[in-house]
Amino acid sequence: MTASVLDDAEVTRALVIAAHPDDVDFGAAGTVAGWTDAGVDVVYCVVTDGAAGGDDPAVSRADLVVIRQAEQRAAAKCVGVSDVRFLGYPDGQLERSLELRRDLTRVIRQVRPERVVCQSPERIYERIQVSHPDHRAAADAALDAVYPDSRNPFAFPELAADEALPAWRVREVWIFGSPQPSHFVDITDTFSRKVAALRAHLSQTGHMDNLEDMLRGWLSRSAAMGGLPEGRLAEAFQVIATA
Length: 243
Ligand SMILES: [Zn+2]
Fold this sequence. Notes:
The chain is of the alpha/beta class.
């Protein structure tokens, strides 16, 4: 445990912000399952519509958006999450715009989470797939929305004036896919639900025969990095105090 991490008992609401359908399930679903079991309300916010994925030309892009949203809702259900929000930005074209910062600030003020979970805005040269441009843009905007936008009453004043959404201060951020993980959550007991969540993304993981082995490899390495006993599985986060 890192000293700066809030005790889960201090957290009533957590908000996960991710670029694509399935990102949260690869990065954090085992941890989320533990939180919802403990009574934490968890909300997912998926920034893009997922329409640039897949390689089946017979599936229209519009159909794919509907499929990906249904899959993400089903995956969320596997780990106790029923509130899934989609911002609908075009997949593959995400930029860290003021518009995106405002939209994420709106969701933060609506949900009022103590804890926000997001991806890393940094490019990781060792694992280039983790650093998809949409991931970096979503994460950068999410961190800007945590600090300073959502807590600053003068940022996007229309949110308070027109939507009755006053400023809200997020206490900490957990980054998954970080090059500098500092906190390791033992998810051995929720691993099967993480796998089920990933399997719910049929259009993305249906062809992955080795999904479970691949996950065990990654999660075992994270557990070892976190000093957990042999045979345990862990998800890794960089936790930042933002109070
Ligand atoms: Zn992604």
